[in-house]
Specification:
about 0% strand, 8 helices, single chain, about 210 residues
Length: about 210
């Protein structure tokens, strides 16, 4: 399998997972069965995407980091993401007068409370898949035909758009930050690790 085909199948896997919910709704599958199928689908899709990343050639800026290097960047990425997120929320409220709560976060909290196993999708699978798609597939591939700044902006806007949340500015800021972490740490799983920890901390705080 060639490099472009790996990326095509990575994107196809992600699209099929996004369509899975709609297909289940069309079949009138709801409740626990719906969320079990979605969670299992996400686990399978994440596994496939990680396997395809492993088959891929490395981008010029990518490398295999040491454990110490990885931990340092994951911690930096998590702290920076949380600080940046709350800063972006403040600006969002100041400029656009948006709600103090995120519709996306509130919906996810309700789902996790009703179906606890769904956290596997929300807290683990979703961040990994989003990093692979928006950072490795879009951002990394756009650097050469544009430049690192335009690539980061385009991928960040796509990331924000996909979340369909009122806090668009917050998601753009997160997209830019995780592109920075990925590029500087030289490994997609470092930005994914930061993304996972940030989501876990934000959801834990929101549950109080």
């Amino acid at each position: 399998m060639t490099f472009p085909k790996n990326q095509f199948f990575t994107l196809l896997t992600y699209i099929l997972l996004l369509l899975l919910g709609s297909i289940l709704n069309m079949l009138s599958i709801t409740g626990s069965i719906y969320f079990i199928i979605l969670t299992l689908g996400a686990l399978v899709a994440t596994g496939i995407m990680m396997y395809l990343v492993k088959l891929d050639q490395k981008f010029p800026f990518e490398s295999r980091p040491t454990l110490n290097h990885s931990l340092q960047w994951i911690i930096l990425g998590t702290i920076g993401a949380i600080v940046l997120q709350y800063g972006a929320i403040f600006l969002d409220q100041l400029i656009f007068h948006t709600s103090t709560s995120s519709q996306n976060t509130m919906q996810l909290l309700l789902m996790i409370k009703a179906y606890p196993y769904y956290f596997l999708y929300v807290l683990i699978c979703a961040p990994i898949m989003e990093e692979v798609i928006f950072r490795r597939l879009f951002f990394a591939n756009l650097i050469k035909p544009t430049n690192i700044y335009i690539a980061a902006i385009i991928s960040a806007f796509l990331f924000a758009f996909m979340h369909q949340d009122t806090r668009f500015l917050v998601y753009v800021a997160m997209g830019l930050w995780f592109s920075f972490i990925y590029y500087k740490s030289k490994n997609i799983y470092i930005s994914a690790g930061s993304h996972i920890l940030m989501n876990a901390i934000v959801l834990t705080i929101s549950m109080r």
